[in-house]
């Protein structure tokens, strides 16, 4: 499973529950019927979204899959009227921080001892409406198809 590959302290039941509660905000990238990445986004208030998790299988990193997934979740948020999106990333994960900065996220503080091992998180925020890929034409990995499990509404459900 991708989350086992990417995260040291994963709980597959958490992802199952997130999908059950929030199918609009759970996007997957597939190649030949195999999931190669996913992103989970939720609505935390009327105008604020949050990216809870982004994971890409090791062999598909740096291929554009992550960019495509984040652009898709930002598009869903923007279409639903969300004004800003927040996420947390390990302070030591400078690669992820640079990735998100390249997509328009800015450092907006830190959360001490955020992770179970005591590491701090860097909080990053993106204000939507500026630089959002609203037409879904972001950098695309040609061999991966993004599928979105949606309900009738266009914004992720509030948890």
Structure description:
The chain has 159 residues and is an alpha+beta fold. The chain has a single domain, classed as 3-Layer(aba) Sandwich (Aminopeptidase). Helices cover 25% and strands 32% of the residues. It is built from 4 helices and 7 strands. It has a 7-stranded mixed beta sheet. Strand 1 and strand 2 form a beta hairpin. The protein is globular.
In short:
With 159 residues, this protein is of the alpha+beta class. The chain has helices spanning 2-6, 12-21, 65-79, 94-102, and strands at 26-31, 34-45, 48-56, 84-90, 106-111, 121-127, 145-148. It has four helices and seven strands; from the N terminus they run ααβββαβαβββ.
Q: What would the CATH topology be?
A: Aminopeptidase
Radius of gyration, in Å, reads 15 Å
**CATH homology superfamily:** Gcn5-related N-acetyltransferase (GNAT)
Question: What's the CATH first level?
Answer: Alpha Beta
* Largest sheet geometry: 7 strands, mixed
Structurally, the number of domains stands at 1
Q: In one word, what is the shape?
A: globular
Extract low-pLDDT stretches.
3-8, 131-159
From the 3D coordinates, which CATH architecture would you assign?
Answer: 3-Layer(aba) Sandwich
The overall average pLDDT, rounded, is 77
Q: Report the order of strands and helices.
A: HHEEEHEHEEE
Question: Helix content range of the residues, please?
Answer: 10-25%
Provide the β-strand percentage band: 25-35%
By secondary-structure content and strand pairing, the structural class works out as: alpha+beta
